[in-house]
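Training component of the fellowship. As part of building independent skills, the fellow (R.M.) carried out the full modelling exercise for a liganded target. The chosen ligand was flavin-adenine dinucleotide. The inputs are recorded below so that the supervisory panel can assess the work.
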Amino acid sequence: MSHLNIAVIIKLEPDFSEGNVSYNPDGTLNRAETKNTLGPHSAIAAHAAFFGRVMYDAKVSIATMGPPIADLALQQAQQISDAEELHLYSDRLFAGADTLGTAEVLRVGIEKMQEKMDIVFSGHRASDGETGQTGPQTAWKLGFTFLGNVISYNVDVETRMVRAKRLISLQGLPNIIEEVEAPLPVFISIDPTYKSSYNTVSQRLAFQKYKKEAIQLSDNFKDYLKIFNAKELGVDETLVGLPGSPTIVYKVERVPKSTATRQAEVIDGSDPEQISKVVKKMKEALSAMVIK
Amino acid sequence: MAIIGGGSAGLAALKQLSHLGKQAILLEAGSKVGSKNLSGGILYSKKPKKGNVSNVEQLYENFLDDAPIERKITKYILHSTSQNKIYSMDLTTAHDYQANFGCSVLLNKLNSWFAVQAEEAAKKLGGGIIPGVHVKSINWNEQNDATIIQTDELDEFEVKAIIAADGVNSEVAETVGARKKFTPEQLYQGVKVIVKLPEDIINKRFGVSSDEGAAHLFAGDVTLNHIGGGFLYTNSDTLSVGAVYHFDSQISNPTEPYNLIDVLLKNPLISEFIKDDVPIKPKIDKNLPQEEQLRIRFAVAKLIKTWYEIREASLSSIGRDRLLKSGKYKTVEDIQKRLSAIQEQMTEKFGLTFGTDYLEDEYGAKLVPDGKRCRMRKPYFKNILFVGDAAGRGVFVGPRIEGLNVGIDDGVRAANAVAQALDKNDFSENSLGENYSKSVDESPFTTDMKEIDKDYLKIFLDAAKDVPKDIIGSRYGPILKMMSSGTMRGIAVKFANILGYDKLLPMIESEDTYVRVPIQLAERLGEPVLSSYSPTIPSIADRIANLNYNDDHLSHIKVLNPTSEYIKKMVTLCPAKCYTEESGKVIIQHEGCVDCGTCSQETEWKHPRGEKGIHYKYG
Ligand SMILES: Cc1cc2nc3c(=O)[nH]c(=O)nc-3n(C[C@H](O)[C@H](O)[C@H](O)COP(=O)(O)OP(=O)(O)OC[C@H]3O[C@@H](n4cnc5c(N)ncnc54)[C@H](O)[C@@H]3O)c2cc1C
Ligand code: SF4
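Fellow's submitted model of the complex:
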């Protein structure tokens, strides 16, 4: 069986779960005392990588960009995914990077990993103010096919094809699930609803085995950890950090609640003509959606 | 080869099969092994006069050094109660009878440890443990002789043989038709709470060292006229307080199981055993702004948590070592100082006071099979062998309460039989089933379920020798007299066993034994015990709210006839208060169910799907 290499990009985020958030006397969030943890979407991406570990005996590597304490997120992700390689890209120079700057660091990092990657996973988006572009941008920089909102996947290791289900939510329409196929390498952004399923006895046994291994590895996660600064990573300094980040955030505002633009029409269910009108409208709406 | 159910019995089977070099998998419905198991419980290691049993320390070589047992029980005392009067009898000799040891255990911890040992061995052979899987049916394909297991979670798969260790409410036994559901006469209902109490306090209060422990049993008015009794066992830093009653006695005179526990907790002796210093939350001034009230509530909760953590550690040898090793404290005095500082802060800043009360940390309930009345005479069906509670094999004789060790012994016997069958490639009832059945029949535990042991009986007669004969009453008087002479006792027991244990049981296990005589004893010979406080007992709603569940929107229990007499009794008898009656009809809300099985008699009853339902922290 030819081998499969999987990378996951993750993020350290403030832990918003109960008991871990700390507030200042004035009621505002106390950042210094609030604990940090592996972001929930990153955790889901790590679970997706672990699926590859269990099903295809894949080798998993994890990368994150952040301050030195982000090694905690790597440890947590290793515990989920049984990764053998942990990368932390940490440099003052990276501070203030927007998604494009981050994507550049991650690209260089991923290309520096021991193996050539077949699949790179990222979470849907971070919960602390990220816009969800890091994934697509990293994919673009790597030159990998991008598959977004993936809710399940499997790989044919022989033909090196990945088959994935994507959840597509279009406003005002019921969700649809699209099944796509792409040759490796691919970049997969995992949907928040993703859940690995292990349906046979041997898959469950493999799951147990690797899970145990993951816990053991993560107890000594420092043995697997490599920390790179900008120089060690060899990134082009003009492409990362503030200088490499064209986005300027000058104000963050709440989106005003939009007033409904849809118009409702009342249909008399007992009139066949009216019903066929509805069917026609539905057909139009469906044909407007691009489905492979 | 598959084992269904990861309680002590199933795990023993997996360990033994692996020891014999046979590959096996174990399927457990709980999300983690141990999370669905509940016991009293004292785990015994026995040395019977006749025959052999497999004890826990033989099966798990490192048991005595490494297993997370609580305490070795060195005192065993029976108390007869009548209001505040208590008459105590030391039955340590009965506890020691034919025993290597008996230790208090908490099943979540213990079964998790068994699982690690068993799985390590199983993995080397390609087997292992699969948690979170609920077996729903077993089918036989007549054409190719295949046995197929269907679960709620996995694709169906084939096995050569099955060991069913799925507990007292065995769905396997029922769905394949190996036995009917156990009836109320064949069962006990058990309820239990875990009370937190620091290690040092336990040592002092019960007069034991850190690795020793005490067991206290209760009969008399605390039974509220039910046949059975209460128990209190010391664990490392908790107490197990519970009640086990004949289920038919509960059916004929229903009492809320939680009330049976509450009566025990309110008995002055038990109140004194469980008491501790507890922080009493201050009333927060409702006139303060909302945020301020919230802030105070958070701060108080956090302080109380820290206080408990440090206090608990400071009152235990391991805890103190841990705190000192952490480097935060240099000496034990430092820890004390820190504790006093927190206490001061609690009082001065937030007006928190300290009082005497007790702290309950888990409530649970389960049915227990009475092996004397319900053990399967033929503990197999086709290529399925039944072990432990699933086979109805608990030894309950007087104060003797043994299910764990019997299940472990059964597990080993079943594994041996399966290993032989694998070698011969013969899984027929005549070979596999009969082999196992024979082995089980030879088990000293089976003998103990069938006959009175005169030496065991003598222990009680000796303990009761100072009791005035008229208390024992006309019913027992002549028997006692006869039994107290050595030669006569031998003859009498022989005669009794010829008459049949079954016929004697209703006489031995009667209200006289569990209620009337103990009350008389307490009233006539007992000493008054006073308690300095009355415990604040949580309501059943609070108890349920404090448990961990993984809720399933699908109900695993369906009421068959909402107006039947039996189901109406469930309104009282369900330990989780899942049943209510509305305009003559009984309805169930399954969300708080603790899978005890009490209502299974007249419902379509299944265990919840994999990972769903109750998850005990202690068990
Ligand atoms: C209050 C109380 C006090 C007791 N005191 C003592 C004592 O002091 N000493 C003593 O020795 N014994 C005592 N017992 C009895 C003892 O606890 C039991 O005999 C023992 O725990 C039974 O073990 P088991 O492995 O047979 O079954 P269980 O521990 O019930 O295990 C069955 C397992 O099977 C799983 N399961 C069930 N159905 C399925 C399915 N369809 N698919 C997959 N998995 C399934 C369950 O989740 C569970 O984990 C006491 C019991 C109670 C309730
Ligand atoms: S619903 Fe039935 S099984 Fe569940 S706790 Fe109540 S009596 Fe027990």
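The panel noted the following from the submitted structure. Residues 458-500 of chain B form one domain. The radius of gyration of chain B is 25 Å.
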